[in-house]
């Protein structure tokens, strides 16, 4: 039998394709290892407490009142509803973040809870938005709580979640695992989880902040998440405040929803958790609406202190329009 040698062109093509295939396999392996490394470190990175080098210690005496703010900053993409996350330029987004921080600085706040904050995400050019806002606002203590922490480094990184800014030291913080809408989404991307943080407001007094950004697609999931917050509340005796974008409007307000069992997340927190809400039932006006910022028609952003507090002030800041949500400010005093 006669074996004919391949022509030089055929040998070149075979060699080239073989090497191209090997390169493809190598790239796939590198990407898989990178993704797996990111995925397996999610729990370690879920909550991070940082402070500036010269952060002041807690005061010797607890303040009589605290000024609080909750604000969903929508990744810094701006006030127009349904704007794609990657649309604003890096310069425009960075300027907006600094303006958010400067607006916060001017309010004389003690504790701020922010939602939809990017830490290292491709659509915001890897900017650590928490650091930019904290520096502009003058807050020495930062807690980053990651809800979505996945993707491929340097290609498509998704790293964002909630942020607590505090004038006082944060002693401890942990993620509260919320019920999931989709197990596959939770495994491969993340979930709308919450934050529990212990803030030392004086040498001998701490309070707990429960910061939440609840699932926007299901009141059933929001009700389950609210029940989880109440469970956390019952584990602590210190004064507590729930803050955040709860994506829930109680009965009597526009776009109110209930679960399959007839429950509502905000109403559950009020009725079973003893958290106070403003506006009071039947007292809401259009000035209380928080979303969307250009034509507000819903109340979904809340500050809910427990019965340890007296609410002195509660208002929606309608002149701060850097996001499709409006921020909510509350001043509370120990009873």
Provide a compact summary of the structure.
With 335 residues, this protein is of the alpha+beta class. It has seven helices and twelve strands.
The averaged pLDDT comes out at 93
Strand content: 25-35%
Instruction: Bin the helical content.
Output: 25-40%
Oligomer: single chain
| Total count of domains | 1
In angstroms, what is the radius of gyration? Answer: 24 Å
CATH architecture: 4-Layer Sandwich
Shape: elongated
Q: Look up the CATH topology.
A: Deoxyribonuclease I, Chain A
With strands numbered from the N-terminus, the spatial order across the biggest sheet is 1-4-5-3-2-12-11
Biggest β-sheet strands, sense, barrel: 7 strands, mixed
State the end-to-end distance. 101 Å
Regions with little confidence, pLDDT below 50 for 5+ residues = none
- SS-based class: alpha+beta
Q: In CATH's first tier, which class applies?
A: Alpha Beta
How many helix segments? 7
What can you tell me about this protein's structure?
It is a single chain. With 335 residues, the protein is α+β, with helices and mostly antiparallel strands. The chain has one domain: 4-Layer Sandwich (Deoxyribonuclease I, Chain A), CATH 3.60.10.10. It is 27% helix and 28% strand. The chain is built from seven helices and twelve strands. It has helices at 8-40, 42-45, 90-105, 129-137, 183-188, 219-233, 265-271, and strands spanning 47-51, 65-72, 111-118, 141-152, 156-166, 170-176, 194-202, 205-213, 240-245, 301-305, 309-316, 328-334. A seven-stranded mixed sheet has the order 1-4-5-3-2-12-11. Strands 6-7-8-9-10 form a five-stranded mixed sheet, covered by helices on one side. Helix 3 links the parallel strand 2 and strand 3 (111-118). Helix 3 (90-105) runs parallel beside helix 4 and helix 6 (219-233) runs parallel beside helix 7. The longest helix has 33 residues, at 8-40. The model has no long low-confidence stretch (mean pLDDT 93).
